[in-house]
Amino acid sequence: MHSVERIGRYRIQRPLGTGAFGTVWLAHDDTLDVPVAVKILADNWSHRPDIRERFLSEARLLRRAGSPRVVQVYDIGELPDDRPYLVMEYADGGTLADLLHDGPLPVPEALRFTALAARAAATLHEVGIVHQDIKPTNLLLRTGPDGVLEVVLADLGPARTLAEASGLTTAAGAAGYRPPEQAEPGAGIDARADVYSLGAVGYHLVTGSVPGPPGKVVRPDRLRPGLDPGVRRALMRALRTDRKRRRPDARAFAEELERLATGPKPRRRRHRLLGLAAGAAVAGMAFTQMDHGPAPTELRIEDTTGRVAAVVPATWAGQVRGWGWDPRVLGLPAGHQPGFAVADDLARWQDLGADVDGMFVGRVGRGEITALVNALAHPACHYDGARDHTLPVWHGRVRTWSDCPGGGSVVEAGLTPPDGSGQPQLYVQIRQQGEPKGIRRVLGSVRVGG
Ligand code: ATP
Ligand code: MG
User: Fold this and answer.
1) Cα–ligand 2 centroid distance for 409 (angstroms)
2) Nearest CA, atom 11, ligand 1
3) CA–CA distance from 173 to each of 20, 178, 215, 230, 241 (Å)?
4) How is the chain split among helix, strand and coil, in percent rounded to 5?
5) Fewer CB within 10 Å, N or C, the chain?
6) Higher pLDDT among residues 315 and 185, named by residue
7) Is the peptide bond before 436 cis (omega within 30 degrees of 0)?
8) Can the peptide bond before residue 108 be classed as cis, meaning omega within 30 degrees of 0?
9) For residue 433, what are the CA distances in angstroms to 311, 381, 383?
C-alpha cells in the first residue's frame, strides 16, 4: 500500500478506520476549508472490476438517497495507481460501535439511536434501496448544530436497489445483524431485511451483546433485567425469522422506539423483574426469585449457555452480560469460556472510582487460577489480605482490597474443586460500594455444569 499525503485538494491527515474493502481517512478540503472522510479501495481489491464497480455503485446510491440521514458523497476519483476513492462527509462523533465499547447504553438512549438509524434506513427505502449491511460500524455519529449527536447511515457496499435485489444471490451482512433471507439464495430482499438488522442494532445497544443467530436470539430482558416488556416485544418482533411477522416498515419501527424511549413507567419495570417465574428452566439466563415476599433479596443469574450460575443480591442485578469471556484478558491460555457479569452499572465496571455493585464469574479452561489470583494487584486500593475459604463445593482463594478511589472494594477470587482435581475452575471478581460483604455466601452459590 503506497502512502498518500494529498489527493488533489484533499490533504490526508489520519486513518479513521479500516473495513473489509479499504481504509477511511480523515482529510482536509483545503479549498472549502472543511474536514472530509476519504475512503480508498484497498490495493488488492482495486484490480477486481466487480469490486471496483461495487465501490462506485455505492457512491451513486449514496448520492441518490440525497438525505441528511445518509452520508453525503462529495466526489469520486482515482489515484495515480488506479485505486478508486470516494470523498464523503466526515462524521465527527465516531460510530455506534465506539459507544458500545463501554457496555450497553441507557435504554432510552439506545432506543433513540436505533430510532434514528431506522429513520435513516427509511429514507433509503423510500428511494427503493435496501441497505443490507446495517450494523454499528456503519452507523456514524455527527454532532448536530445544537450539539446533539445525530446518526448518519454509511456504507452501502452490498446495497442494491429493491428491483435488483429481488431474487439476487447474496449473503451480505454481518453475523448477528443479518436476517435469514440474506443468507438464502434467491429469497428476494426487501425493506424487512433492514428492519431485522435495525432490531439487531437496538438489541446490541440495549443488552451490550450481538444477538445470536436468527431464531436463536436470547430474550433481551434476560440480559438486561427489568427491561420494559414493550421494548422486548419491539426488538423481538423486528428479529423474527419469518419476515411476514416483522414490522414491515422502518419508519413505523422508528416511531415505536421513539414512543418507548419516553417510557417505561418505573413501577411496571420493577414488576417485570419480580414477575419472572421462580426456577424457570429456560435456555439462556434465568432470574429466579429466591426469597418469598414482596421483593426478592437475591436473584439467580446464569450465563447464556446455562453452564455457570450464581445467586447475587437483587440490588446488583441491574444489567447482565452473559456471553462468556476469553481468559486471555488475564494472561491465561486463550479460548472462549462461559461466564457472566452482573452489576447495577456494567458500563462502569472497570472504573475503580465509580460506585458499582456486582460480580463477574468466568470459567477457566487451562492455566492455574489460584496462581493468577495471587498475582493480581490493585495499587490504587488498600490491600486487606488473602484468605482461603472452604465452601460446600469449592476451595476458594480470596483476596480483598478496600478504600479504592471511589470508596468501594474489590474481591478477586479463584474457585477450584476441594479435592484438588483442578477442574472445573473459575475466576470471580466482586465489586461493592464500601467494605466487602456477604462474599462467602455469593462464592458458595457459584455452580458450574456441562
Ligand atoms: P466493513 O468493511 O465490514 O463494512 P466497516 O464499516 O468498519 O467494516 P468501513 O466502512 O471501511 O468499514 O469504515 C471503516 C471505519 O471508518 C468505520 O468503522 C468508521 O469508524 C470510519 N468511518 C467510515 N466512514 C466515515 C465517515 N464518513 N466519517 C467518519 N468516520 C468514518
Ligand atoms: Mg462501513
Assistant:
1) 41
2) 19
3) 12, 5, 17, 27, 15
4) 30, 25, 45
5) C
6) 315
7) no
8) no
9) 18, 13, 16
Pocket test for ligand 1, best of 12, 14, 16, 74 (most atoms within 8 A of CB): 16
**Could you tell me how many residues make up the chain?**
450
Q: What percent of the chain has pLDDT over 70?
A: 88
pLDDT for 413 equals: 96
The pTM (predicted TM-score) of the whole model is 0.63
Q: Which residue from 72, 95, 139, 149 has its CB within 8 A of the most atoms of ligand 1, so it is best to mutate?
A: 95
Is the confidence at residue 446, as pLDDT, over 60? yes
* Span from the CA of 234 to the centroid of ligand 2 (angstroms): 26
How far apart, in Å, are the Cα atoms of 394 and each of 40, 164, 305, 442, 448? 56, 61, 21, 12, 11
CA 297 to chain centre: 29
Ligand nearest to the CA of 18: 1
Give 145's DSSP letter.
Answer: T
Question: Which pLDDT does position 63 carry in this prediction?
Answer: 84
Cα of 279 from ligand 2 centre, angstroms: 43
Mean per-residue pLDDT for 156-170?
A: 51
- Ligand 1 pocket residues where CB is under 6 Å: 16-22, 24, 37, 71, 88-91, 95, 137-138, 140, 154-155
Q: What is the pLDDT of residue 345?
A: 84
Question: Ligand 1 centre from 215 Cα, in Å?
Answer: 29
- For residues 114 and 365, give the distance between their C-alpha atoms in angstroms, rounded to a whole number: 37
pLDDT at 278 over 80: no
Are 75 and 122 in contact by the 8 Å Cβ rule? The answer is no
Q: Which ligand has the minimum distance to the alpha carbon of residue 14?
A: 1
What is the mean predicted confidence (pLDDT) over 83-100?
93
Name the residue at shortest CA distance from atom 4 of ligand 1.
19
Domains in the chain, ordered, with CATH? 6-89 (3.30.200.20), 96-261 (1.10.510.10), 286-448 (3.40.1000)
Atom of ligand 1 nearest to the CA of 18: 14
Q: Could you give the residue numbers annotated as active site?
A: 133
- Of 86, 89, 137, the residue with max ligand 1 atoms within 8 A of its CB, to mutate for a pocket test, comes to 137
Indicate whether 64 pLDDT > 90: no
Say which residue the cell 491465561 belongs to.
Answer: 332
